[in-house]
Task: structure prediction
Amino acid sequence: MTLSLFDLKGRTALVTGSSRGLGRAIAEGLAKAGARLIINGTDQARVKAAVGEMRAAGFATEGAAFDVTDEAAIVAAFEGFDKAGIEIDILVNNAGIQMRKPLVEFSSADWRKVIETNLTSAFVIGREAAKRMIPRKRGKIINIASLASELARPTIAPYTAAKAGIKNLTKSMAVEWAASGIQANAIGPGYMLTDMNQALVDSADFNAWLMSRIPSKRWGRPDELVGAAIFLASAASDYVNGQTIYVDGGMLAAM
Ligand code: NDP
Result:
């Protein structure tokens, strides 16, 4: 049956930053396709609430609250998974932050925070996951990129640098780990309705610019990433490696 290609039953997915926003929508989508979930975020209470809601909806779900910029916490979380017999089959490196400031006003500390949260975290968590996937000879890694992986906009320079890095880190993961049965790909969301974009959603000027620029003439909904996520998490993409799939309402296709 063709649809069994997308079946995630028996697979466990760790989605970073999945207590809300795009990560939450991706996690729910993977759960609906059969995956067991591990929900992450920094805020313990928010992770606990999300786990409760997912369980109430009938999905097998655990929580693992840790900061993706805290290497010791990441290593400890993976050691905890090992002890509990939890094997991560699908890793979605989704946690990320945005800071908006003119480039001349960015402090080095803020630059580093954005790079560490959006880029270095994917390397460290990807490394810990891959160490365990390689001996098992299978694994799926999905990194969350952005339109900013391709294009710049004033005031988001560190984010743009980090997301461009995600695109090529994804290629590096693919070429190093493909022979071990691992596929690493990225999803590049366009402008999606989440907390991260509230300031833009609330700005009439930004909305006017976006609607003049985006072929679909609307913002994206978080659940619109689910199809690409299930594809990249499942056997349907077993020979797809190192790619970034943009889910952007046609934004990158337009002049
Ligand atoms: P939100 O701000 O809505 O949600 C961010 C999530 O990440 C929350 O669950 C948050 O949990 C978690 N998080 C933030 N920092 C950390 C950290 N240091 N460690 C662990 N978890 C963390 O963001 P979005 O859902 O909008 O964005 C998700 C990803 O998608 C990001 O990588 C973003 O760059 C990317 N993206 C978003 C787009 C959009 O239009 N929204 C477009 C393109 C890409 P908590 O606060 O509890 O820590």
Remarks:
- The chain has eight helices and seven strands.
- Helices lie at 21-32, 44-56, 71-83, 108-136, 157-177, 198-201, 204-213, 226-233.
